[in-house]
Amino acid sequence: MKNILIVFTLFFNLGFMMAQTTVSGTVTDAKMNPIEGANVYVEGTYDGASTDKDGHFSFETSETGTQTLVVSMLSYESHYEIGDIVYFKDLKIQLVEAINSLSGVTLSAGTFEAGDNSKVSVLKPLDIVTTAGAAGDFVAALQTLPGTTTINEDGRLFVRGGTAGETQVFIDGLRVFQPFSATANNIPTRGRFSPFLFKGITFSTGGYSAEYGQALSSVLLLNTTDVPDQEKTDISIMSVGGGLGHTEIWGDQSLSLNTSYINLAPYEALIPSKNGTRWNSPYESISGEVVFRSKGDRSMFKLYTGFNHANLDIEQEDINYTDFVNFQLTNNNLYFNSSYKYFFENDWSLASGASISWDTNDVGFEGNEIDSKETASHIKVKARKNFNSRFDLSVGAELFISDFEETYTDAEDAVFGTGYNGQLRAAFAESDIFLSNRFAMKLGVRGEHSTLLDDFNFSPRVSLAYKPGENGQFSLAYGDFYQRPVSDVVKFDGALHFEKASHYILNYQYVGNGKTFRAEAYYKDYDDLIKYDTETPEYGSTFANSGAGYASGLDLFWRDNKSIEYLDYWVSYSYLDTQRDYQNFTERATPNFAPKHNLSVVTKYWVDKLRSQVGLTYSYGSGRPYDNPNTPEFMAEKTRSFNNLSFNWAYLIDQQKILYFSASNILGFNNVSNYQYADTPNMDGVFDRRAITPAADSFFFVGFFWTISSDGKSNQLDNL
Prior knowledge:
This protein has 720 residues and is mainly beta.
């Protein structure tokens, strides 16, 4: 009997030890739809089950006490229940949709990306150098996108009814104060930078991030390459000059150098300029860029520097002078930029950097001299925290310092001096919030204070995006944007206020199967624009922030590189309705740089048998307004429309060598940008006029490009 009692006790204790607890419940999504196939298990054990078609699960476990129940399913965020396991019965669990960085919604209103890894990319870096008419200039390539206007006698970026000064350029997040080469009147300029040093470009036509300020219309962000893919040497020889570049890699560090020399004298001797232009000394420049990179386990340091020296001596026709007017220019520009990023283990990152530039101009015209010097710097720090896949936060502060001096000496040696110096301090905060794979928002604020103006501004920014299907999405953006008056104004009067523009943008974008379509409607409301009571800003002018205006329109973009084998093309169209009362305008009117219609068609075709890529770019702009003093209406007449057809051809000699040819305005359109009127009327009381046309409306050049990689090979075919 005693032995039976012992055996019974052992079996009773063993049964108690092996007692099972039933875990059960139902798993649904946010809309209470059952989720089938979700994995449910006790963390650290093999005890678990999968949900059935009704989302129900049930299993037994021998675990006791406080446990963690894990519920996981592809496309959903994992769910955790923590508590005493005896209470894990009849659970009601809702899974939250996971954010997919590859197929989820993106915030793209007003923004064009150009980078090989960008899912909203519409231009690749090589588009800049292979687009007919661009001639390797990133600004010329961007002018084939909607929202931009081709002002062929200027060459800078004019965006959605804004002046060229309303667009700012940044390298690795730091301001570039003089992004374009110096030039003479009516001679188009170019960007200072080589496109080969940048991994990607972000061009915002409006509604841009709170991280950036001091731009009423748009920002252009250039990001240098983090890690070059190979060591190589690039040699280019052109009809107007040449270039040499080299990239060296050692360990986690690398150095890239680019130099170029341009001299228009041989070209001018072959094809002399017309349109009332004579060169005493054609444009000549030497420039160089250096990028040093050092990559750590969790850090990246970059140092960028660029220099440029340019000079020219030109004589141009002027209706108010019997002889041609002489203009001489010598420009020197030096720019430094350093940036450092560190990524912490807790999903914090810190980015800091500084840039500084020195720019001098020595100008001479008709016995008068203007010597100017500008020193400007930018210091910035930004911290970012990724709390999870749905929420991140960026905060930062920055400081801009400007010092400008100008001396004017007239033909009688009378000297006048002017200038300014001041600081602009700014702080910003911004967050990306992904509520689901279909809906996201960006919320930001920015505050700025200028010591020069003694003025403060506060700018809210917001963007919303909704993705109704797999390939298409809608975006909406709003923001206030401020900018200090230009140097030509504040050097005479610093007691002014910020100019302001408010942006409203509605966007639809489709990306899929090699095709991209964008449609974007916008409205910009200008306020506090600068006005003055003289023809140009000068001593004695009366300045005031009494100007205002608006710009509205529709931008369309279509790109297709799949429908026809070997053919890549895109079409851009912009409709612009804008008027403003600013500068010396007598009333609100459409300015000369704002045609109502703009169209660009870019084609690139690879001819396999000829080992060649041929391209055509056609640009059209409707007539631009101008003011005729012989009529009572202000800015009421228009020039003829602008037309330009450019051609390029690139022949692949072998995997290392490319011969290329490019020509602009091959049909010889006589484009008129404006008219110059005499200061005084003739005998009949009429103000005589002459057409203003670009001095270099047509050009061509032949070049040879040779790449020598570290292994002696380079696949130029892939580049084309």
